[in-house]
UniProtKB/TrEMBL annotation, chains A, B:
Entry protein name: Trehalose/maltose hydrolase-like predicted phosphorylase
Listed Pro residues bias regions: 772-784
InterPro entries: 6-hairpin_glycosidase_sf, 6hp_glycosidase-like_sf, Gal_mutarotase_sf_dom, GH65_N, Glyco_hydro_65_C, Glyco_hydro_65_M, Glyco_hydro_65_N, Malt_Pase/Glycosyl_Hdrlase
UniProt-annotated catalytic positions: E488
Record has Membrane as a keyword: no
Annotated region (Disordered), positions in chain: 766-793
Source organism of the structure: Sanguibacter antarcticus
Domain Glycoside hydrolase family 65 N-terminal residues, every copy: 16-270
Family per similarity comment: Belongs to the glycosyl hydrolase 65 family.
Domain of life (superkingdom): Bacteria
Any one GO molecular function term: glycosyltransferase activity
Binding site for substrate: W361, D362, K591, Q592
Keyword Hydrolase: yes
Domain Glycoside hydrolase family 65 central catalytic: 327-678
Length: 793, 793
């Protein structure tokens, strides 16, 4: 889709050199800007044509009833869906009497560029109207990292060749029309007119529209203010109505002159605060931004990103596409979480309405691991959001006859919104995933304050859930029956290995954290007998293994199931659109990494030989119909010595949206897979693991790469790992006297700022041959190093 | 509910001696009349008050979309629901100027009686208006077994004490108002105004209203005609509009005189035929009924039922309640199927809208076994209906990537209507149940023509389904994974024992029937290699057994699951309204007989000791939240020597609606449980099985009964089995020279019409103690024999 000449490969930006309306919706997702609080899809300034218009505020949702053909006890009755709020991106242009619309007149040139270092979307347009009046338009857009409520647009028009009468209409439009419904379950339901008007304010400098959602009763304020620079006499007026507001500026501009409009946007919402409070909050944000000014906002944005890249950048030599993709992915992962601040990080960030704007386990197991080591404060925020939903999760557990807290499979506000329980409520591993994110964050940062205030309570309630969920068999083994693991092509199975191992880790973590903070544990009612129960269950956890085949079982009995008949389905991916769940569930076919994921995060539970055999077995049965798979397959392929296969998977994970590999980038970006691109490189080729509180590395590069350089933040330090085929160098930045102990291929190594450490690397030999994938599902081979295909397709 | 003094225990009728509006809706179900084609709920003649008004035609449904919160491939998009058609039962009465309404004036006496031998619902009312004008009304109502399209009402009014001006309004009303919606999943959704008017005809003697359903586009005609006998001058008029028609008759009646109105009703519907054809069909039915006249219809009805009872009656001595209940059940089972004629038999017959009027496996495994031995022609018809839906079942199988035919879990027209696949589509045992019904019918009747025309094709397509559904393990065992058995508190399990054994039987039956009819088999494309595949799979079928506990497993791994915690839920039955499926599915708790059902129908696969141990194990875990359980538990309790427990269960099955045990009799009768009352007696205390084509008996009575006498039709003969504690006598009726070979307790016995055979009976000693049931779920103990409680509560 988006793999064509209009998108050159560049190291620090994503550019579009010509406009192709067939990929307009995809480009809107790629060019989306967000700070985690406000999200603007990359719609054209003039609003039309569009693929999907979108302006989102994190956590701002509408409720709707969940329909069931046959309802059951505990089925959630209410769904939540992200709402497209008032669109402030609109800047329409009238040239003489023709509206700028790229579908009419002559478009001489059209460039867009997302600059990953400035954090701005830039656009240049060279256009003539049907009447042959020619203009150049340059716009720049940002969603501010430094001022959470603010987005801003600079819009500059310049006539070419002859003078033109220029009219700019800057608008704020609520309840925009949305494209029609889809039958794909991954697409959000579209709500018509979700916003009821509450009030409209205007003064000399700004307009604020207040609306309230009809069912969820959330109040939202959207404001705009302008700074206009015109080259002479100018007429302007502001019109405000319930669902829209408009500033109109008209003037005659000569060639060589320009009309410049800076548009400041502010958004705020609340479920509790009054109309006055929300109105004032929006007006205050506008006032602050006006004080900072356009240049100030641009400078702040750059400074914020410079700091981020300084600690987070990944250098990939030998593959320009992958280099671009991993930075693109990191940028969007940062955007999704940077200023989310105790709101969820949705699976598509704020780039589209896919999956209704819900957050899933993707956040804890794919996005947060990246942010833990690159932007840890946003991890603390994301987990504080989970903590803020504990009451809802406790109520859900009680409804399900369980103890502790049952976190929702998908949600915006914290309530379970899954309308299909076998692949929703039954996926209790979400609780273990949250526990793992807590443990990982505390281990990497040493943030004991967080652990005391937030982490321990999460761990305790999660441990209580799992103890109530599991049971002992007559031989003393501990089992979790009837739950669903990560792989959505199996459901409601006994002893899902990933769930069992992760639950065991969570139980131990809760016991250990309780020991570290006995006063807090005491307040939470934790007693020594209770922690003994946790440790006992963890120690007795059942790990299903098929002794005849010598491989672990994804869940009890899995390796005895029938094989999928791939002959019938070579062109029928994703399978879930072509086959019933009943058939997928009962066969040995995987949508995504599950046991493989357990081998990544619980690697200690497997021998090297088991890992090799398990990879060999499950690779052949994994169709990767989920975007949460390639990165994990990359990591284990690398660990088991299939470096070239790992490389292909790493590219697939990182390029998922730039190449629109799932053909649904138009609905928003796949944040977990973009994060997975980083994980594939760092955990895959860097061999990075957190081994009991010590960072551990075991690097090895595939043929196609000549160098991989990445950094991880660890306990306030930045550790830089620079890998070449022959050797790896570990270096520490920050803190003149600090030293860091790490494991290199099992060897304990101490690194200080003065003394980087270099180790030679051998050749990694796989135990088994490179495994095959299901028909048609081998990852696309990377183009030969340095080839044309790797530069600019 | 209905257990109060107003319902005396009578051998051949069900009477209500006073009107209690609190049980009005239940009484409407109990007093429902049907011939399998037309169903009239027992609503009061004057229409109000009502619990649920209802006039149904078998197979006449409306379509509606199936909603899903998260849809998936193969989820049925359309539901079907039975429609309340034009109500012709209405006969309103005006006494002077007061409408007869039991809620006003003085109701001196109100009797209703369902006569199981005449097949009529009789009513007498003695009522005074507020103005103290007193009348006696007597009405009788029948739905004709002999004239399929006809129902009729005789309505007689007689003033008491003084003359009265009597006005009778006889009506036909379409799109009646329905009571509101319920949240119980077992209750049908209510459609508003499902019928669009098409045409209205009237002539001197009758009115016909034609309507069409809006979505399913079925055409229905409802007609009424009258015979009026008035004691003098009479005014009458007919008014017809789109949705209603009314005959009004007025006259003055003296004490000792009476006004008599006979109302004839005719119904017909079609998905194909023209308006003219349907109109003429209804008019012709009315003309035929008019020719027969009221007395003729009454006589035909009695003759039909005399023949039925002559071959089907069950005599139970020692328990008057059970005697009444088993006849009541047989009567309603007959009503559900007698003239269904290639339409489905719904789970509630035509007595209410419960379960949307759908048919389930209940029909083949509970209702048809009774009809096979008491009214076999209706079994052939019901299975011909299944055969008529083969194309839809083949299409469904193909949609599910399976071979053969996948019959729907619930349907009216033959399309899958289940909106929750784990307890719907996944319950593939429906196919084996249909196969079993075919085999049972052919075995009992010797109807080889049916086998050639209908049975073999059903068996072949069912065998093909199961072969495509199963698979071999590495040791050569044959498994069916990921399906749901009868017990709805487990779902999507591997190797459900019932499904495996029943599928194996179906495979063998298909192979054997193919041998009997090689020409038909050849036309169906059956080859020797294919039948070998069927026999091979059946021979290798896996039967899960827990060697440590010495019991079979309901499904693979079942006996390793956690136990249900009954402490929490003593008052929370049915569990599915108080606990999530996920928790029910993963624990050792059963909604209903499953393995126990396999031991009934596939008894040869178990030793006597295994049966005893299995009963002991599963009894303790079965909560009987389904009405499809007590009868089967009765049968196996009897076989394993727990005769008193069996007796309690037999009563529960038979009394389910007379005692409103499930508290939803108002939505219609539980046809399977009513049939199960017969099964509990005949298969339980009679020990009746069809053992490889030979009828087999092994009688034993519980303490509470002194005698059990029943008949089964076998190959054109009637075999009567008369059981007392000390002895059993087998006798053959019909066919002067016929003889019948049967097995008595394993001994081969030949019975001829001249020579009944008597055998003494010993005492049956159970291997194990009487098992306990879950807390609060022991069946109600039968009252002591001859006690007051057993006569007339």
């Amino acid at each position: 889709m988006i793999r064509h000449g209009a998108y050159p490969t560049e190291p620090w930006s994503v550019s579009e050199t010509a406009l192709d309306l067939n990929v307009l919706a995809q480009s809107e997702s790629l060019f989306a800007l967000s700070n985690g609080h406000i999200g603007l899809r990359g719609n054209l300034d003039e609003g039309e044509p569009y693929g999907i218009p979108g302006t989102y505020l994190n956590g701002f949702y509408e409720k709707k009833p969940q329909p069931y053909a046959e309802a059951g006890y505990g089925f959630p009755e209410t769904d939540q869906t992200l709402v497209d709020v008032a669109n402030g991106k609109l800047v329409r242009l009238l040239v003489d009497d023709a509206p700028l619309d790229v579908r009419y007149g002559d478009l001489h040139d059209h460039h867009r560029r997302l600059d990953l270092r400035s954090g701005m979307l830039e656009r240049t347009v060279d256009w003539s109207s049907a009447a042959q009046t020619r203009v150049r338009v340059r716009s720049r857009r940002l969603v501010s990292f430094s001022q959470r409520a603010i987005a801003a647009i600079e819009y500059v028009v310049e006539p070419v060749g002859s003078a033109a009468r220029i009219t700019v209409q800057s608008e704020l439009v609520a309840n925009e029309q949305q494209p029609g419904e889809s039958t794909d379950p991954r697409v959000a339901a579209v709500l018509g007119h979700p916003l009821a008007p509450v009030a409209q304010d205007r003064d000399d400098r700004s307009v604020v529209l207040l609306h309230r959602t009809r069912a969820s009763e959330l109040l939202v304020g959207a404001g705009m203010g302008h700074i206009v620079e015109a080259p002479g006499r100018m007429a302007s007026e502001v019109v405000v109505s319930e669902d829209w507001a408009r500033l109109t500026v008209s003037c005659t501009v000569q060639p060589g002159e320009q009309l410049r409009v800076v548009k400041l946007l502010a958004y705020g919402w609340s479920s509790l605060r009054s109309e006055t409070a929300v109105r004032d909050q929006v007006a205050a944000a506008l006032a602050g931004a006006r004080l900072t000014g356009w240049d100030g906002l641009v400078a702040e944005q750059r400074a914020y990103l410079d700091e981020f890249w300084d600690a987070a950048d990944v250098v990939v030599d030998g593959d320009a596409e992958l280099q671009q993709a991993v930075r693109f992915g990191l940028f969007h992962v940062l955007q999704s979480g940077a200023r989310a601040e105790r709101r969820a990080i949705p699976s598509k960030g704020l780039t589209g309405l896919g999956y209704d704007g819900h957050t899933f386990w993707d956040t804890e197991m794919f996005v947060l691991p990246v942010l833990t080591y690159t932007h840890p404060s946003s991890v603390a925020d994301a987990l504080r959001w989970r903590h803020s939903t504990l009451d809802r999760a406790r109520a859900r557990a009680a409804e399900l006859h369980l103890a502790g807290a049952a976190f929702p499979w998908r949600t915006i506000r914290g309530d379970e919104c899954s309308g299909y329980w076998p692949a929703g409520t039954a996926a209790f591993h979400i609780d273990a995933d949250i526990a793992d994110a807590v443990v990982r964050y505390v281990s990497a940062t040493g943030d004991t304050g967080f652990e005391r205030e937030v982490g321990l309570e999460l761990l305790v309630e999660i441990a209580r859930l799992f103890v109530s969920l599991g049971h002992y068999d007559r031989d003393g083994g501990w089992h979790i029956d009837g739950v669903t693991g990560p792989d959505e092509y199996s459901a409601v199975t006994d002893d899902n290995l990933y769930t069992n191992l992760m639950a065991a880790r969570a139980l131990v973590a809760a016991a250990e954290a309780s020991l570290r903070h006995p006063d807090v544990a005491d307040r939470l009612g934790v007693t020594p007998p209770e922690t003994s129960v946790w440790r006992g269950a963890a120690a007795a956890v059942h790990v299903p293994f098929d002794a005849v085949l010598g491989v672990h079982q994804q869940s009890a009995g899995f390796t005895g199931h029938a094989e999928w008949d791939f002959d019938d389905d070579e062109d029928a991916y994703p399978l879930f659109l072509h086959a019933p769940y009943f058939d997928l569930y009962r066969k040995q076919v995987l949508k995504q990494a599950d046991l493989i994921l357990a081998m990544h995060w619980c690697g200690d539970a497997f021998t090297a030989e088991q890992k090799a055999r398990n990879v060999d077995y499950y690779e052949r049965r994994t169709v990767r119909d989920s975007s949460l798979s390639a990165c994990t397959q990359a990591i284990l392929a690398a660990e088991t010595g299939h470096l070239d296969l790992a490389y292909d998977y790493a590219r697939e994970a990182a390029l998922i949206d730039l190449h629109d590999l799932q053909k649904n980038t138009h609905d928003g970006l796949h944040m977990a897979s973009l994060a997975g691109g980083w994980l594939a490189l760092v955990a895959g080729f860097g061999g990075f693991r957190d081994t009991g509180g010590t960072p551990s590395f075991d690097p090895a590069l595939p043929q196609g790469l000549t160098r991989l350089r990445f950094s991880v933040r660890w306990q306030g330090l930045r550790l830089t790992v620079d890998v070449r085929h022959s050797a790896v160098t570990y270096a520490v930045v920050d803190g003149a006297t600090a030293s860091l102990v790490l494991l290199h291929a099992g060897e304990e190594v101490t690194v200080t700022p003065d003394a980087p450490v270099t180790r030679e690397l051998g050749i990694r030999v796989p135990l088994l041959q490179r495994p095959a994938q299901p028909p048609g599902r081998s990852p696309e081979p990377a183009p030969p190093a340095g080839s044309e295909g790797n530069r600019g397709r």
